[in-house]
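Ticket #4471: structure export looks truncated?
Reporter: QA, pipeline team
Priority: medium

Steps to reproduce: submit the single chain below to the structure queue and open the exported record.
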Amino acid sequence: MPNGNLVVFVEGLERIRILSVVTLKPFLQANVEPVANLIGARDTELSALRAECAGAFRDVVARSPQLSDDLQTVALNIEDPVRLADFIAANLPSLTTLLRQELLETADVRRRLETLVARIIQGDRGLGLRNKIQGAGAGAGKSEPARISAPRANEGDSEGTGRVG
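Actual output as written to the record:
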């Protein structure tokens, strides 16, 4: 990059856990072990969760000018819930790097898909709020101020922590 940073895109063949870092120079070397994905039974619930996640991601891509429409085609064609969860986690722009890493480290595929669906829904609420704000700005000069209601404190908080996002 012009600022001297190096950007590298890596796609793994399997999920691993770093046991120890051997060296950082001239390149990163580490001792690792494979980590199995926990899928459980491939039942109708998992299929429905996979379809819901793919559909929600499709909607995000359709409304997002910075995301290529090809992403929704790819996501809808991924049948394997493990690959779908990883693909969406890697491409969903609203995820922080920390949350993306946490998701990719989580072995439980159902939990990853559930978390992604919840984050996409939270993102939709945020998008709706941004659209209301932008719409209010477009109506500048009108005599009545824009009214935007704030979301409830723990709306979207699936763990009851009071934190959102």
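Status: closed, not a bug. The export was complete when the record was re-opened. Leaving a note from the reviewer for reference: Residues 109-138 form the longest helix (30 residues).
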